[in-house]
Design brief:
Chain B: This is ATP synthase subunit b. Chain B: Belongs to the ATPase B chain family. The complex is a heterodimer of chains A (273) and B (156). Chain A has 273 residues and is mostly helical. Chain A has one domain (8-270). Helices cover 69% and strands 4% of the residues of chain A. Chain A contains 9 helices and 3 strands; from the N terminus they run αββαβααααααα. Chain A has helices at residues 8-15, 35-40, 48-70, 79-98, 106-122, 130-137, 151-183, 192-229, 236-270; strands at residues 20-24, 28-31, 45-47. In chain A, strands 2-1-3 form a 3-stranded antiparallel sheet. Chain B starts with 5 loop residues before the first helix and ends with a helix. Chain B is rod-shaped and about 195 Å long. By secondary structure, chain B is mainly α. Classes of the chains: A mainly alpha (273), B mainly alpha (156). The interface between A and B is large, with 52 and 31 residues.
């Protein structure tokens, strides 16, 4: 809720600003006071809130799954094991239906992507003022609790996936095979430069689309929550409840899409054309 | 939307999470799943086998029952036959015995009748002679008329 002294645009921009720590040209190593300063810090700055929340959620995910994995039984599973097994089988089914090679990496990778991104997206359903308010009371100026509304978070994962695409393409086909694949299709060999250009654009579009799709969806969703929060407090539920319910679908779907596309891209990297 | 060091940090965190997941989370759980799948398959197999065994045992029991019934029926039949045979034999024996007794009685009777006849004949001869003697008032030579008397007696 916007307090009296804060204008709507200030409120919105406050909620869309990360807690950035970096080397400011004038202030030196410090937390940025506002988006302007964060932008001036350039590349050598780090969004502390994104890092903390994403790593925290990742650790939570792995801690829970590891706890189940240590006490796992092939007999009658308990509640937590049932839950974990359901997710793992869901991921495994998806991997098996798309990816037809043997790889010890793909399935755990898909699981990590799905659950981690889902948890990060889930933070979107926490009422948007609660945690920033708590942190503001503790003297922390900015706090964006949904890591996937930060393009760095989605970009980091997408870049890693891109690196894996390159790695597996070269591992499976060799450098020359990979280059041949990029140059000798879809048009005949004489058009090799044109083909190469086309395929490189397509290749680069993969991580960019992965990162921006997730970022865009979550950013837009967050934005709508922020706009709803500008309404008088007694009217907010009329819009925020339906949007939150709809958002449950979106956050799951986005995590699922990210996972499936990753599997598809890596399957393509393994396949010979 | 500033691209900064966070993107590298996220990539590193992601990498570590994937490695951890790959080493410590995925294998034990999928292992347990595979093991359970195997157990269930074995259980179903065992159930199938048991069902088949049960069916076989039931068939065998029914077979045994049928064959023992047949055997019992055969034994009863045989016993009945034997009993009839014994009764028949006894009847036959009795009939033979009766016939024999009857035959011997008949023979005795015949003998008696013959003897009586003989006696009677002899007596008739004597009586006839005596009668004739009385009638003729003369002694008739017994020896001379013996033939005639015997003839007469034989005609009686």
């Amino acid at each position: 809720m916007a307090s009296g002294t804060v204008t709507s645009s200030e409120y919105i921009s406050h909620h869309l600003t990360n807690l950035t720590f970096g080397n400011h040209p004038e202030n030196g190593w410090s937390f940025a006071h506002g988006a302007q300063e964060a932008a001036e810090m350039g590349f050598w700055a780090i969004n502390v809130d994104t890092m903390l929340w994403s790593i925290g959620l990742g650790v939570l995910f792995l801690w829970f799954f590891r706890k189940v994995a240590t006490s796992v039984t092939s007999g009658v599973p308990g509640g937590a094991q049932n839950f974990v097994e359901t997710i793992i089988e869901f991921v495994d089914d998806n991997v098996k239906s798309i990816f037809h090679h043997k790889s010890p990496v793909i399935a755990p990778l898909a699981l990590t992507i799905f659950v981690w991104i889902f948890l990060m997206n889930l933070m979107d359903l926490v009422p948007i003022d609660w945690l920033p308010f708590v942190f503001a009371e503790m003297g922390v100026e900015y706090m964006k609790i949904v890591p996937t509304t930060d393009v760095n978070a989605t970009g980091g994962i997408a870049l890693s996936v891109f690196a894996l695409i390159l790695y597996y393409s070269i591992k499976q086909k060799g450098v020359s095979g990979f280059l041949k694949e990029l140059s000798f299709q879809p048009l005949p060999k004489i058009f090799a430069p044109f083909n190469l250009f086309l395929e490189l654009v397509g290749l680069l579009a993969k991580p960019v689309s992965l990162a921006l799709r997730l970022f865009g969806n979550m950013y837009a969703g967050e934005m709508i929550f922020i706009l709803i929060a500008l309404l008088p407090f007694w009217a907010q539920w009329v819009l925020s409840v339906p949007w939150a319910i709809f958002h449950i679908l979106i956050i799951t779907l986005q995590a699922f899409i990210f996972m499936v596309l990753t599997i598809v891209y890596l399957a393509m990297a393994h396949d010979d054309h | 939307m500033n691209i900064n060091l966070t993107i590298i940090g996220q990539a590193i965190a992601f990498f570590l999470f994937v490695v951890f997941c790959m080493k410590y989370v995925w294998p034990p759980i999928t292992g347990a799943l595979a093991e359970r799948k195997k157990k269930i398959a074995e259980g179903l197999d065992a159930a199938d086998r048991a069902e088949r065994d049960l069916k076989l045992a039931q068939e065998k029991a029914a077979d045994d029952m049928r064959s023992s019934k047949e055997e019992a029926a055969a034994i009863i039949e045989q016993a009945n036959k034997r009993a009839n045979q014994i009764v028949e034999e006894a009847k036959e024996q009795a009939r033979e015995e009766a016939n024999r007794v009857k035959a011997s009685a008949q023979a005795e009777l015949d003998q008696d009748v013959n003897r009586a006849k003989e006696t009677l004949r002899a007596q008739v001869g004597a009586l006839a002679i005596a009668g004739a003697e009385k009638i003729l008032e003369a002694s008739v030579d017994e020896k001379a008329h013996a033939k005639l008397v015997e003839k007469l007696a034989a005609e009686l």
